[in-house]
Amino acid sequence: MLAIGVGFLVAIGAFARDAAAYTAAGDRLFAATVVLPQLAPADEIYTWGSTQPFAGGNWLSEFNGTYAKTITENLGIVMQDTWTRFTQSGGAKPLYGWLNFDTELKYLAVNNQAHEFLLTFGLDHEWGGTGAARAGAFASGATTPRVYFGKGLGDLDIGYLRPLAITGLLGYQIAAAAPRPDLVTPGFVVEYSIPYLQSKVESLPLPEFIRGMTPMTEVLFSIPGGKSFGARTTLLICPGISYAGQGWEFLVEGLVPATHATAAGTGVVAQVHFSLDYLFPDTIGRPIFSQH
Amino acid sequence: MPRGICQRKLPAWLAATVLLVLPGAALAAPGGTVVGLFGSCFIEGGGSRSAAKIGQSVQVGDTVDVPTDGKLKLRLSDGSVVSVAAGTRMTLTTVGVDGAGQRQDVHLSLAQGLLRAVVAPVERPASFEVDTAVGTAAVRSTDWFVEGSATAMQVGVLSGSVEMTSAATKRRETIPARWGARLEAGRDPVPPRVWSRAEFDAVIARTDVK
User: Which residues of A touch B186 (CB under 8 A)?
Assistant: First the structure.
C-alpha cells in the first residue's frame, strides 16, 4: 500500500502544478490556470490547495506557494514549493512534508498582439533531495524543457466564439538519475473569457459577478518516456471557473481523473493569485532590469 | 430714478448686457498657454480660428486643432502640461484653479487624436479628466497618454494611475504605471495589460514637441 501511495505521489508531483497567472497578448488576457504552468514571465505571487481521493480510501492533499519575478520584460524566473499530505486508510500514519523545490526560467519569444498569440520557452528544474522523502520527494532532480503557446480567437470572424482561447504546453521531464522515469507532459486549456466578450464582442446586460468570469477546462497528460520504473500514463481533466478582479484572480476547478493511474475519484483545487506588476508597478512589480 | 444714480450704474448695465449677449465672452478665462509648437496649429474660439503662437493664451472653451503635420504643447493654468499629437482636436472644457493656482477641476474633451498629459500634483482631491466619444479617463497626478476617436479610446500610463470609464456601460478599470488599456464604443473597458517599451516609445514620439 505504501509503495502504491508513493507512486501516486510521484505521479502527482510530476505534474508540477506551478499555477499560472494571466498573461496578455494585445487585448487578450489569458486567465490564470492551476494545473498547467503559466504561459509567460510575470511578477506575481499565488497559492493553491487541492485534495483528491486515491485508491484504497487514501487522500492526497497539497498546498503550493509560488513566486514569479521578471528579470527583463521577456525573461523571468518562477520559484515554487508544495507541501503534501497523503492520508492513508486503515490507521496507517499519514505521509507529509515538502516536495522538492522547483524553479523555472521562462523566455517570452513571440507576442503577436494582432493575432493574440504567445510563444514561450521554459526550462524547469526540480532540485532533488530538497524535499521530504517520506512525502514522495525524489532524491534526484529532474530538468524539463518546455514550450508554451497561447492563442486567442479574437482575430477570427466567428462572432460570439471570439472570446475563446486555447493555450498549451509540451514538456519533456528528464530525470537526473534512476529509478526516476522520464516523462512527457503535454497539456492544453480551453477557455471562454466573459471579460473579452463584454469588452471586445458585445456588452451584454450580464450581472456584475458574471462579467469577471472565465470558464475553462484544463487537460494535462503525464506519459512515461523510456523506462517507466512503474509509472503509468495519467490524464487529468479539470473543468472550472476563474474570477478576475483588479490585480487578483480566484480559480476553482474539479480534478477529474481519466485513467485509473491518475486518481480514484474527483478532487478539487482552488487558487488565489495576485499580480504584483499591477498592484506594485513601481516597486516589486517591475522587472529587475526594466526598460521603462 | 435720479439721473445721477442712473449714470453711475450705466457701465454695470452695459457690462451685464455684454455678458448676456456674448455668453462665450462671459465664460472666457485663461486655460493655458502655448509653450511648444511644431508646424501649423490652430486655436479656435469665439467663432474665430487663428494660427497658434508660442506664448499665446488659450481660453477655456477654446479648441486646439493640430493638423497631421503639427504638434503642440500647452501649459495649463494648474501647471499641468499637455502635449498634443498630430491629427488631434481637443477642447479645454474646464480649467478651474484656486487662488494659489492649485487645480480644482480640469476637463478636456478629446474629439480625435492623442494627448500626453503630465498632470501637476495637488495637495487635495481635484479632478483631471479627459472625455472622448466612448468614455472618460480621470487622474490625480500622473504622466499618461490618451488617444481617442469616435469608436475607441486607449490609455497608457507612465507614472501614477488612471481610471478609465465606459460611457455606455459605466464599467471602469484602473490602469497603473507601465500598463495600458483600450475601450471600444458601447462596451466595457478591456482589462489593462503591461505595455511594452516599444508601445510607449511610439506614443512618446507622436507627442514629443521640441
Answer: 203
Residues near A118 by beta carbon (within 8 Å), at least 6 away in sequence? A23, A25, A30, A39, A40, A108, A110, A111, A112, A148, A149, A150, A151
A292 contacts B178? CB cut-off 8 A? yes
Contact B187 A200 (CB under 8 A): yes
Model confidence pLDDT, tens digit, residues A37-82: 999 999 999 999 999 999 889 999 999 999 999 999 999 999 999 9
B144/chain A closest Cα distance in angstroms: 13
Check residue B102 and give its pLDDT: 77
- Between A24, A73, A246, which is nearest B193 by CB? A24
pTM of the model: 0.84
Q: Do B176 and A29 touch (CB under 8 A)?
A: no
User: Is there a contact between A198 and B158 if contact means CB atoms under 8 Å apart?
Assistant: no
Alpha-carbon distances of B81 from A176, A265, A271, B23, B140, rounded to whole Å: 60, 63, 44, 28, 13
Q: Which residues of A touch B202 (CB under 8 A)?
A: none
Question: Does A10 score more than 60 pLDDT?
Answer: no
Half-sphere exposure for A65 (CA within 13 Å, toward CB) = 3
Q: Give the residue among B77, B49, B81, B54 at the shortest CA–CA distance from B64.
A: B49
Mean pLDDT of B157-177: 93
Closest CA to A24 of A91, A73, A92: A73
ipTM of the complex: 0.82
